[in-house]
Each structure stands twice: as structure tokens, then as C-alpha cells.
Amino acid sequence: MSTQEIMREAYLRYLVPTHLHGKTQHKTLGARLSEDILQFRDRSRFYRNRPGRFFLKKFINDSSIPSEFRRPIVARRRKLELKNKNIVHFQHELISSVSNQNAYAFLTPAQLKRIIKRGDFVYRDLTENEDDFLVPFYSFTFFQRRNEFLSFDRGSFREHRNEFLGKKSLGFTVPVEHDDMTLFEFENHGVVNAGLTAAAIDLDLEFSRDLPFFENNSKFLGCLFFEHRGKSALLGLVKVASPGFFYPETKRLAVNDLGWVEPFDKPRYSFDPWTEHFLSWVQAKKRR
What we know:
There is one protein chain. The chain is of the alpha+beta class. Helix content is 26%, strand content 25%. Strands 3, 4, 5, 6, 7, 8, 9, 10, 11 and 12 form a ten-stranded mixed β-sheet that branches.
């Protein structure tokens, strides 16, 4: 079963303790199962028979179960794949009409929820999207502790836009796709789940015991509309409140030079366009 199926069955059978909380409980469950398999290996009670599918080891020799379910696979740590298929897009006119009419067009979580419930969106491939009237939807997940933000440089492994290369970023960004809408994240089409997954892979947190802390301390703030030189995007802002002790280390090609910065201090850093727009929005909110 997948972790989503396990959680669904657990809720239907009233097996989930009432003290458990979290926006992406199936992700937490997957991390804990993966950690158990990594730590205990042959002594683990679980194994994978397909990527993302778990089975109980005590049934591995049960001949009444099809053999395809009883063949363990070895799963490597994932890398974040470049997503461009079946990405959520909204009509430009719809975003303009619903969002606040000011310099920073913004959708509240409630406004996005209404749009999602009405089904006012389409799925398009990013590589085929040449329609100026469609706005792609991205998760923009940022880590914050007090006045500091976690910053990084985008590696050329993932980033090919000239205006983003060589610039600092504060947001772990990933397109929101068809499969991100889950039982647990219907209202925002899985923007939190997508963002946390991307950040966890880049920061090597998938199997960390700290992952539930970040999941439980994440909050969807709403969507910030970005438009520049004919290119537009709707950025779903996901804030992750980080503890003071968290200092990430990673050797992945997608992100480099990780560190905590106070972006409003001088001298100013050279940020990518999305981060600059986000920081301008943050400052505007403080002034109001």
C-alpha cells in the first residue's frame, strides 16, 4: 500500500491516535517507514515492493499472496526530478479579478480554496505552455527563524533561466502538478505537500527525525502573483518556522551555499526575481 492508502485505512478503522496532528501525515509515515528500513535493514518489519509502496515482511513467504508483492526492492534516496507535466494553470483574468488590486496581487487561502473547489484551473505541460492567458502555479517554500531566512544559490543542474542563475534564493520552488492534490490537501491542491517534499529532498531531510517538526510548523500564507517581461507565475507561499539549532548541510547539485541571512540588512544581497518580489511584499505588509 502507499502511505496515503495506509493513512486512509487507519482513519476508517479508527486506528489513528487522537493526539496525532500534521498537515502531511502520510509524508511523515513514509519517512518513518523509510527510516526503519534504512536503520534495521533485514531486521525491519517492512519492505518496499515498488517505489512508494510498503509491505509487511511477515507475509513475504505467504504463497497465497501474489509473488509480485513479495519481491523486495532496494530504494535509493530520491533526487528531485524536474517537474513539467500536468502542471496546474489558472486563467490570468481570473487571478486578476480575484486578487487584491494593488502592487502585490495576492490570493488568500480562502480565495484559492474557492477557485480549487469550483475547478477553475487546467493542467498543462510547462514545455508546451505558450498561452499568455494561463498562469502556472508554483510552491514557494521558505524557512524562517526570527528575522533570518534560509538562503541558497540555485545550481545549474536544475536552473536554466539566466535571471535566476548566480542569484541567491529564499524559496524552494516546484511546480504544483496533478498528483499533488491528495485526500489531505485538496483545498490548496497540495501546494504545501509539494513544497515540503521538494525542500526535504534538497535539504536531505526525508529520513530525518526532524521532518515531522517542519511539517507541523509549516503554514500556507496564500498566493503571490508575479509578472515580469511577459512571464507570469502564481507563487503559493509556504512558511516553515525553523528552530534555532537547525543548520542544514547538503551536497546536492541543485542548491549551493546554504546559510541563514537577514535579507533586509545592508549590504543588500543579489536575489532572483521571485525572491525580490516576495521580499518587497513582506516589507509592504510590515508598513501596513
